[in-house]
Amino acid sequence: MKIAVTGGKGGTGKSTVATALAVELARRKKVLLVDADVECPNDHLILSVKRKKDMDIFQLIPKWDFKKCTKCGECGKVCKQNAIVSVKGKYPAFVPDLCIGCQACIVACPVNAIGKGKKKIGTIYTGKKYSVDLATGELKLGELASGEVVAEVRKRADQIAEKLKSEIMLIDSSAGVGCPVIASINGTDFVIAVTEPTPSALHDLKRVLYIADHFKIPKGLVINKSNLAKRFCKKIEAFAKKNNIPILGRIPYTQDFVDSMIKMKPIVVYKKEYQDVFAEILTNLKKLTG
Question: Is the pTM here over 0.85, yes or no?
Answer without folding.
Answer: yes
